[in-house]
Amino acid sequence: MALSLLAKNPLFGIAPDGRGIYIFGLEIYYYALCIVAGMLVAATLSALLMKRRNMSPDFIYLLFVVCIPTAIVGARLFSCLTDPSLGIKRFFDFRNGGMSITGGVIGGVGAGLAVCLIKKVNFLRAADCVVINILIAQAIGRWGNFFNAEVYGGVVTNPSQQWFPFAVPIVEGLSGTQAFGNPNATWHYAFFFYEMLWNMIGWALLFTFMWFRKKKPNGLATCLYFVWYGAVRMVMEPLRDPEFILNKGGVPWSLVFAVLMVGLGIAVCMTLMILNFLKEGSFVGSKNGDPCGITNYLTPYKKDVPYFSKINMFGSNYPPRPPKEERKKKKAEKIEGPSEESTDTPPDKDNDDDNGNKE
Fold it and tell me: Which residue numbers in the chain have pLDDT < 50?
């Protein structure tokens, strides 16, 4: 197969259809590059937010390994089940398109819940650090729609409005970049750009909210993500070109799930606040005890010890990181068995983590 690719395609270069590049004879679509870039940015920001909110940032690696494949499967499965032009028989035909963001969110969040249950980690607390960053992954991924010349709206007939990014030129058979300057191009509303912009605004608001907010209950940011993204899709879905609406069986499935996201997001948000009021005497925070939902260090790893960090909201509670800690720890484990760090510092009975482990 590799030899056949090299025979048909150049070793390196830009694909003639303008939708990808050649690397060792294999065409890599810009769409795929945008999706991967979005995933990496979201994972990096999630690790940073975990560190900020008194969690082990290493937990994101486990979530990344498990949730990304399930998100891809969910995205493809949702498209195959709801797109009239596809079907379950074409599930493995990934390179010919058909990836639903809604399905990806369902698959990824579901896998994250399973990981947290297995590792006995507070799911809502972890989700708050990860789910909101899906918005920036979605924003970056939307640029893949530009390169593929898809996810656009109706025709823009007014010449004064035929400018990018308000509108985008479309020519059948050409990529988004190749359509510019083509006399046969038809200008359409650039809905992919509108959605990208609203996703970026939502991410900025929620990330700022999470960066500075300490008070419980956990899970509010996750609910707000579903409310925000669902509202954006509720507005965008009906305005899209019918070609890009998933309406198998005559049901606009993406619109239906967008409505469900908003409704369930609001309902769960209110439920969390009511439960917090019954337990803590306050809808947000606590009148009976610790008002913060992130005071205790949260980690799924037994040997994970917190150290001082300026990023961590509660970093001043922890001792300075010893020099060359990792090398010494590994060397001690190999020679003497378990690390002696846990015996050097007496446990603080008032500082248990969310898993019941002493720090």
Answer: 1-6, 334-335, 339-359
CA atoms within 13 A on the CB side of 175: 17
- Determine the pLDDT at residue 342: 43
Contact 294, 215 (CB under 8 A): no
Quote the CA–CA distance of 91 and 80 in Å, as a whole number: 6
Output the pTM of the full model: 0.83
Q: How many CB atoms lie within 10 A of CB 167?
A: 20
Report DSSP state, residue 187.
E
The residue behind tokens 């019941």 is 356
List pLDDT tens digits, range 47-63: 999 999 999 999 999 99
DSSP 198-223: HHHHHHHHHHHHHHH--BSPTTHHHH
Would you list the DSSP string of 73-106? HHHHHHHHHH-TT--GGGTT-GGG----HHHHHH
